[in-house]
Amino acid sequence: MFISGFKFMVPNIDDDELEDMMMRGPTAREAKMGDHDMMFKALGNPVRRRIIVSIGAFGKSLPDVVKEAGANRSQVDYHLDFLKKGEYATVEGDMVRLTDKGLGLLANI
Questions:
Q1: CA dist., res. 26 & res. 34, Å (int)
Q2: Which stretch of 21-25, 37-41, 50-54, 101-105 has the lowest confidence by average pLDDT?
Q3: What residues contact residue 68 under an 8 Å CB cut-off, 6+ apart?
Q4: DSSP letters of 3-29?
Q5: Under 8 Å CB-to-CB from 41, ≥6 apart: which residues?
Q6: Which residues contact 52 (CB under 8 A, 6 or more apart)?
Q7: Within 10 A of 62 (CB to CB), how many other CB atoms are there?
Q8: In the chain, where the domains are located
Q9: CATH of the domain spanning 32-107
């Protein structure tokens, strides 16, 4: 197949093979690469770094995190959602805590 002068090799994959590939989920290597990508994104944002430092090793109330992070509540909520999705933080009621993965991030700041 030619597109704009480039040749693309399309493997002969039948529908069953394609479905199997889509259903299998990521390999261990792909999952590890995804974890590393998420970690770099978490540490690459200055607001997230301030949030992680604010939470610290012992956790902190959400209003204190908002105050110490130097961001408004909606910004902190946005970044906490990212940290929760990456399993770096948990929120229980008004208390925010770092998970073991989150403590690993804290150690690298």
A1: 9
A2: 21-25
A3: 50, 54, 60
A4: ETTEE-------HHHHHHHHHS---HH
A5: 82, 86
A6: 42, 83, 88, 89, 98, 102, 105, 106, 109
A7: 17
A8: 32-107
A9: 1.10.10.10
- Alpha-carbon distance values, 49 to 5, 13, 43, 96 (Å): 45, 44, 6, 14
Cβ atoms of 81 and 73 within 8 Å: the answer is no
Which of helix, strand or coil describes residue 96? strand
Tokens 């008004």 locate to 94
Structure tokens at 70: 């130097």
Q: Look up tokens 């259903």; give the residue.
A: 23
> Each residue of 8-47: pLDDT tens digit?
565 677 777 777 777 887 788 877 887 888 899 999 999 9
Give the mean pLDDT of 36-62: 95
